[in-house]
Structures are given as structure tokens and as C-alpha cells.
Amino acid sequence: MELHLIRHPKPDVASGVCYGQLDLGLAESATAVAARLRPILPERFELHTSPLQRARLLAEALGEARTDPRLMEISFGEWEGRRFDDIGQAIDDWASDPLGFRAPGGESAREMSTRVLDWLAGLRANPSSQTVVVVAHGGPLRVIAGHLLGLPPDRWLGLDFACGQATRIDVATWGTTLKWFNRHA
């Protein structure tokens, strides 16, 4: 399977604001980002996306997508929309346990990865005859790539997916190959 992982365009949010499942608009045109990506994507592909508009709008500019809530970013619960500076000491608690920590009313990175890996297992159980393109968020893309590349979960944070760029991973029965990372035409 040829898999292209695309992070959504830059969201319309002030620097230093916590957002995960906060449904933000875009700071750049989804159509313009799609035009930059189109030359590096195959002509035909199966398209999957998160329902959050920052991903969905780009997916719609690329084609007809299957929307799946399991591809949404981590939920930061009560932290959504707050400035990190206002969250205080809890940021240190999160940093000390990035996989297990859960913001009040939110989910942990481990919980988010469970739902994303459930989506990936379904994809692999029913493989497409076409290339698969996924438009989602940094967290879910780290989970997909890290898992497929055999990295331990505590190393997934090192996969820094840039907004509006694509990564290609080829998955074969014998293993996985990272073909390129954070690219656009």
C-alpha cells in the first residue's frame, strides 16, 4: 500500500493557544494548499479525512473523502481554546507523562493512539487497490507513521508533520519504507 499522510493547512489560531479538537478555520487557502500538493500525489487515490474543518476543507479540495472521527486530533478537554500560559503547572505534568497525561475532560495521547490504530487496523484489513491519502492532524499522523515504522510510542513525538505538507510511506508484507517526509511541489 502506498500511503500519503497530509497534515492540514495552518489553522486560524493565535500562537500559544491550545487546540486539539477545537474546530478551527484556516489561515491559508485549502485550494492553494491542494494545488501545491496535487503534483506529488498520484492521479487516483482513496481519500480519508478527519471531520474537523481544518483537515476536511483540504480533503474536499483534493477530492471526495471518507470522513472518520477516529482521525481527529487529541481532545484537550477544558484546555481547548485556552492560552498555554494560563494553564500553568499542569503543562509540567503533561511534559512528565506525554503519553498518559489527560487534560481535564480530554483524552490522553495513549487513548488517542488507540482510536487511530483502530482506524489503521480497519484500513489494513480491507486494503485499497489504490493509493491511500489521509488528511488529518499532527497527533494522528505521528501515531500512524510511528506505528508503521516500528518506532516505540515514546519516539512518535519526534515525527514533526508540517502543516500543508505530505509524507509518503510504502507498506508491504515484508515491511515499511519511508519514501519522503514533509514535501510539497
From TrEMBL:
Listed GO MF terms: phosphatase activity
Signal peptide location: none
Coiled coil feature spans: none
CDD domains cross-referenced by the UniProt entry: HP_PGM_like (cd07067)
Official protein name in the record: Phosphoglycerate mutase
A cellular-component GO term for this protein: cytoplasm
SUPFAM superfamilies named in the record: Phosphoglycerate mutase-like
Pfam families: His_Phos_1
Cited SMART domains: PGAM
PANTHER family: BROAD-SPECIFICITY PHOSPHATASE YOR283W-RELATED, HISTIDINE PHOSPHATASE FAMILY PROTEIN-RELATED
